[in-house]
Amino acid sequence: MKGTANAPEVIEVENGSIVTPKGFKAIGIYTGVKRKRLDLGAIFCEVPASSAAVYTTNRIQAAPLKVTKESIMKEGKLQALVVNSGNANACTGEKGLEDAYEMRSVSAEHFNVPNHYVAVTSTGVIGQYLPMDKIVPGIQQLQPEATIEAAEAFNEAILTTDTIKKMVCYQTTIDGKAISVGGVAKGSGMINPNMATMLSFVTTDAVIEPSVLQQALSEITNQTFNSITVDGDTSTNDMVVVMASGLAEHETLTPAHPEWNGFYQALKLTCESLAKKIARDGEGATKLIEVQVQGAVNDEEAGKVAKKIVGSDLVKSAVYGADANWGRIICAVGYSGCEIDPDTIDIAIGPIQTLVNSQPVVFSEEEATAYLKDEETIKINVDLKIGNGTGKAWGCDLTYDYVRINAGYRT
Amino acid sequence: MKGTANAPEVIEVENGSIVTPKGFKAIGIYTGVKRKRLDLGAIFCEVPASSAAVYTTNRIQAAPLKVTKESIMKEGKLQALVVNSGNANACTGEKGLEDAYEMRSVSAEHFNVPNHYVAVTSTGVIGQYLPMDKIVPGIQQLQPEATIEAAEAFNEAILTTDTIKKMVCYQTTIDGKAISVGGVAKGSGMINPNMATMLSFVTTDAVIEPSVLQQALSEITNQTFNSITVDGDTSTNDMVVVMASGLAEHETLTPAHPEWNGFYQALKLTCESLAKKIARDGEGATKLIEVQVQGAVNDEEAGKVAKKIVGSDLVKSAVYGADANWGRIICAVGYSGCEIDPDTIDIAIGPIQTLVNSQPVVFSEEEATAYLKDEETIKINVDLKIGNGTGKAWGCDLTYDYVRINAGYRT
């Protein structure tokens, strides 16, 4: 979906959020679904916003996903998005579906918009019915605002085992007008390609049709949210929703627009930044791992190899142990199922070359250990040297705390 | 490869081992490749034995695998098998291949058999050259014996992070003559379907042609060694080798032999028992997990679903935490990529039914926790109710110790 011209400058906005784009408000409140933390949030747009979404590939999909799909399919527009945490409303059968519909209709009434302008979603424990006695009065109290505090409250309301809030905003210029893309996300365990326990909501004031937005989002999701893995599990509830208010009032964006790339980059940087924050905040993680693969037969295979490496429990444990264990990396390359030449593989861990043409080179173990200990982001670079495909994937180290968290938490 | 008649009785032999079948001797010694434990072993057959093998599916294959393949391909016979632990001779390029050939020729000379009657293999650290100054004199000291102590020494010599020895023997009767199948294995981390860091060597005195043996082994491997997973990693060095001395002197076995099923079952039980021992001894594991899936569209899909469940870090952590978390089980079913009906899934954890038709049923959490705490083997039963396919897979729980072991050990 490349555009026709070079990208205009895209800059990150300090203290930007999902309410930076014109027309958006947000809020997060406490209703008691969770024990202590905020657990119900909403994003509201003052006009019907062009909308697009991608959903979990898990064959078991939670009830709210079905309801949200139905909303977006109708007209490609959303005006309100309501999310609860603490309960996923998944594996809850007919009753669960009724609850999701009720969550939508109560929200539609509260925000005074048609049902199909409302998206609903839930995250948390599977297999328990939504406590509608808390959700319904909760929705009726939602008063979104266009402040950073309100945006942060929304972010807090969608978290589960997350330890940090995940928010970002980029700006660029289209037809001489500033446009913003703001995003927020949750997700730390059950994270794998193809939408794992993660939710992400992106707002923008760009002017764009739903179908064009959908294609851009699908492409970008593959290179960002679908390129992270925490534990290889793919959850039942995940989705990414983008809402575009159109209030920036430039010419409608399509890939033919001379400044299309600026918008595309802003959306991609937003998604990539959120994806990396999710990977870094993987359950129990102490480090972000970024794997870059080049020289694959094509980009898709490069991405696949990168994800196999970053998904290997052995590689993840080695990073936690500050062990420059390239053997486990080449091993993951070998079982990736991708085309490789067993004799041409180069591997570097940060600045340290460890393997050239599949054979070990002498390197300073001390230097390697120092790199693995000191850096917040561990970079692994693999060159397969059989083609021009490149790809990236992100993950995190595997730690005692991952086990502790997941031996206890009932998802 | 079903036979034409019912299976004769197959019984486990107490204190049976790889030297129980007629014609076999074994030994394990210390050469200093490892710091302390035995690290070099051999199995020797007094006659050329019909042989078959399966190898890792990892595209990166260690040098000794290439040499062993070459040996077996020539005539389908082996007389000696020499293994070292402590060094995998993987990712060692031309020099590594030369070393593996030398390991073979020194062994051939020592045992006074042709080169192609010798299999060699190595397990341990990747990317370091074999210390031939220890391996060569080590081989020259190998004096195999037909005692259980010698078989145990062999077993010890092939271990890496294993905590228990893995040995088993079954007997049955063919044409009125007792035949035995004995097996030994190593492997605890990097274990995944399709041959992970595991080695297994099986001996038998049955009379069978190499090609028939190969077909039986390939089939059985899929249902046993390829149905276990510890951490999803598939190593560069794994193989299973079967040697059949033919000294039981019954009629040559083929699937048309009336007692074929007895042999097939003895071989399958040997492999299944070793596979389960490997899974149970997964790095840091405290429990064996056995997942049985029924009602899939076919056996292959049932096996795939079973392996996805048993391979889920979240399921493994939940078992470790004694948490009857069926949500994670159904989630793994959903992302298995197999055909399912999202509304017809039943899940039981041991004797406790937790889900019927994809909806939770009330069960005693207390009883469930007690089952998960008290049992050595945790059974998970999933019925997809869309077909007649059945399959099993084995794995282990994910514990703090897995992380501890793998944050430190340089494989």
TrEMBL record, chains A, B:
GO CC annotation: cytoplasm
Superkingdom classification of source: Bacteria
Classification via SUPFAM superfamilies: DmpA/ArgJ-like
Pfam family, one: ArgJ
Site (Cleavage): 196-197
Residues where substrate binds: 160, 186, 197, 283, 406, 411
Major site of localization recorded for this protein: cytoplasm
GO molecular function: L-glutamate N-acetyltransferase activity; L-glutamate N-acetyltransferase activity, acting on acetyl-L-ornithine as donor
Gene Ontology BP terms: L-arginine biosynthetic process; ornithine biosynthetic process
Stored Gene3D superfamilies: arginine biosynthesis bifunctional protein suprefamily (3.30.2330.10), ArgJ beta chain, C-terminal domain (3.10.20.340), L-amino peptidase D-ALA esterase/amidase (3.60.70.12)
Compartments it resides in: Cytoplasm
Active-site residues, as the UniProt record annotates them: 197
Catalytic activity: N(2)-acetyl-L-ornithine + L-glutamate = N-acetyl-L-glutamate + L-ornithine; L-glutamate + acetyl-CoA = N-acetyl-L-glutamate + CoA + H(+)
Keywords noted in UniProt: Acyltransferase, Amino-acid biosynthesis, Arginine biosynthesis, Autocatalytic cleavage, Cytoplasm, Multifunctional enzyme, Transferase
Coiled coil spans: none
UniProt pathway: Amino-acid biosynthesis; L-arginine biosynthesis; L-ornithine and N-acetyl-L-glutamate from L-glutamate and N(2)-acetyl-L-ornithine (cyclic): step 1/1; Amino-acid biosynthesis; L-arginine biosynthesis; N(2)-acetyl-L-ornithine from L-glutamate: step 1/4
Enzyme Commission identifier(s): 2.3.1.35, 2.3.1.1
Residues at the site labelled Involved in the stabilization of negative charge on the oxyanion by the formation of the oxyanion hole: 123-124
InterPro entries from the UniProt entry: Arg_biosynth_ArgJ (IPR002813), ArgJ-like_dom_sf (IPR016117), ArgJ_beta_C (IPR042195)
Biological role stated in the UniProt entry: Catalyzes two activities which are involved in the cyclic version of arginine biosynthesis: the synthesis of N-acetylglutamate from glutamate and acetyl-CoA as the acetyl donor, and of ornithine by transacetylation between N(2)-acetylornithine and glutamate.
Subunit structure: Heterotetramer of two alpha and two beta chains.
Matching NCBIfam families: ArgJ (TIGR00120), PRK05388.1 (NF003802)
Family of the protein in this entry: Belongs to the ArgJ family.
Matching PANTHER family: ARGININE BIOSYNTHESIS BIFUNCTIONAL PROTEIN ARGJ, ARGININE BIOSYNTHESIS BIFUNCTIONAL PROTEIN ARGJ, MITOCHONDRIAL
Protein name (record): Arginine biosynthesis bifunctional protein ArgJ
Lineage of the species this protein comes from: Bacteria, Bacillati, Bacillota, Bacilli, Bacillales
Gene giving rise to this polypeptide: argJ
